[in-house]
Design a protein that fits this description.
Number of helices: 4
Strand order of the largest sheet: 1-2
Strand content: under 5%
Number of strands: 2
Radius of gyration: 16 Å
Structural class: mainly alpha
Oligomer: single chain
Largest sheet: 2 strands, antiparallel
């Protein structure tokens, strides 16, 4: 029974996500404007992608230890999922498509390294 409760708790946590902005303010992605969602996603991307896959120019930020790889990975999933629900996504669609292509390329490179 305990294992089942832990699984349910984990699933519930996975359904919710709050982005922690500058200054510690918390945002539910559903309440963020599309522009804010996109630029938050782009900021995370530019601070985690390989140099040749970053969108330039970009501003570098110093992230606190709060922004762990696990947290930013979860952020990307939730922010991207919310962006896909928006009707006003057109101004950002090209860069989102490029991000998707670059993610596929990164995964392919990782898979090739595992094989070799």
């Amino acid at each position: 029974m305990t294992k089942e409760i832990e699984i349910l708790k984990r699933e519930e946590r996975e359904k919710t996500f709050l982005w922690r902005g500058r200054g510690g303010k918390l945002y539910n992605p559903k309440d963020m404007k599309t522009r804010h969602l996109f630029y938050t996603l782009k900021m995370i991307w530019n601070h985690s992608a390989p140099e040749d896959m970053k969108f330039k120019p970009y501003q570098e930020y110093n992230f606190s230890s709060f922004y762990t790889p696990e947290y930013t990975t979860k952020a990307v999933r939730f922010l991207f999922a919310e962006l896909k629900t928006r009707k006003d996504i057109l101004p950002y669609s090209h860069r989102l498509r490029v991000m998707g292509e670059r993610i596929k390329k990164i995964k392919q490179m990782e898979n090739n390294q595992l094989i070799n």
